[in-house]
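Take a protein:
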Amino acid sequence: MDIVNQREAVPFTTVDGSTIRELLAHRNSCIRQQSLAEARLGVGCATVPHHHRVTEEIYYILAGTGDMTLADETRGVGPGDAIAIPPGVRHTIRNTGPTELIFLCTCAPGYEHADTFLEAAPA
């Protein structure tokens, strides 16, 4: 049985600039087809606009508020919001609140740096 506590997961910075703690993935469990991570963004911070060629993602906001941009659409998000991010769609999330933005991120297949492609922000 694989159980990973968030407090024991070592944080690292992804290609898009967010700090994540990979909770379950092929690197630390029997999970092979997806991954689950906790991501954090400081006040005023944002991920670099990017897309994943293969991976689909779900963000689930735990704490804080932000602006989520998918392609050319931006919407405010907060605790309890789940965001679907299909493969190939440019996306970024910005912390707009006075506290850290904390969210869960699921990826299928599991997160890999090699499937993260940085993009310029829209003009």
Q: What stands out?
A: The chain is about 0% helix and 45% strand. Residues 12-118 form a domain with the Jelly Rolls fold (CATH 2.60.120.10).
